[in-house]
């Protein structure tokens, strides 16, 4: 079941009070003109006029101000952090508007701080990325230089190995020749 709106409750209460007041004047105090139909019509016209006046006052003092507040809230909800409410016609609504404005200002400050933090973080990330890129480039150059150095050493070792293997073979040949010569020398010296 839907709850009745505050406007309806206020108007209904006001009308009920007016009716009770007129009934009190007519029947209890005896302030009747003598014609009950005329008194009832007069009472109804008074109630209608008072209801219209009450609604107009209520509309200007509360409802329109609440509508302004809701409009500002919707604007804030959509991201317009500059949205503010302006001076109200009642002290209570001024307090509500002031609280809303303070809340909107606080949210705006938080948004600005968050934006500044994001920008600072982006700058730090870019700086760190450049630093890591430089480190990567330096390490790649270092690896390249060491690889060249290692290739050079491997080539030197291969040359050294060829030389030593060649000498070793030559020494074996010389030893073999030397032994042949010694054997021949022994053979000739025995003859």
Question: What distinguishing features does this structure have?
Answer:
0% strand, 191 residues, mainly alpha
Order of helices and strands: HHH
The general outline is rod-shaped
Radius of gyration: 53 Å
- Overall pLDDT metric: 80
Distance between the termini: 143 Å
Q: With helices defined by DSSP (H or I, 4 residues minimum), what is the helix count?
A: 3
Going by helix content, strand content and strand pairing, the class is: mainly alpha
Number of strands: 0
Helix coverage percent of residues? over 70%
Sketch the major β-sheet. none
Oligomeric state of shown chains: single chain
Contiguous uncertain segments of 5+ residues:
none
| Strand-residue proportion | under 5%
Short description:
The protein is about 85% helix and about 0% strand.
Explain what you see:
The protein is mostly helical and 191 residues long. It is 86% helix and 0% strand. It is built from three helices and no strands. Helix 1 packs antiparallel against helix 2 (36-77) and helix 2 packs parallel to helix 3 (91-190). The longest helix is centred in the C-terminal third of the chain and has 100 residues, at 91-190. It starts with 5 loop residues before the first helix and ends with a helix. The mean pLDDT is 80.
